[in-house]
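Minutes, project check-in
Item: structure for the 132-residue chain
Input as provided by the requester:
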Amino acid sequence: MKILIIDDEEFICEILSEFLSEYGEVTTLQEGSKAFDLYKEALDNDDPYNLIYLDVMMPDISGLEVLKLIQNNESSLDEKDKTKIIMITSSYDPDNFFEAYRGGCQVFLTKPLRQNIIQEKLSQLGIEKLKK
């Protein structure tokens, strides 16, 4: 499983990367503007990301904009083949919440992120830890 974490906070990227490495190969980005390019490159190389953690508020482009780009790119795919997207944010805004779900995200989490909640949401998405 390939996992992409996009968050402008380095600390969040490090914490999530450490935890999610038990689930697959993790790549982190702190610039939202590069996120879609990396996602598209992996897809074009037939090695797509299976799961993306995407921060809502980033300085260069919003996570909601990146979500729209990804969803537009995957509009012709079957639901089971689409990238699973978990949106994360430090400030809960109902408008962002509803826009994210309308945009196709599967999970919306607020910071601080709790490991047990992340684990529960991954399990609900059918994502399990790698066997050691």
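Outcome recorded: DSSP finds five helices and five strands in the chain.
No further action items on this chain.
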